[in-house]
Amino acid sequence: MTATETVHDRIETARDDHTTAQLALVFALVATVAFTLLFVQEPLVHDSLHNFRHAVGVTCH
Hints:
Layout: H1 7-17, H2 20-39, H3 43-55
């Protein structure tokens, strides 16, 4: 990583290093985790995800 590297440069590097299928899988996993963390708010599910949320840096309260 250089001092002048941008997010755009990192995206281009990822496109060069990974297949379309790999990038689609990563996007699907991130979308699944985001949906779970944001929209599943049943108390038992919320409690079970509480430590995971903090581990990935999400502030939930």
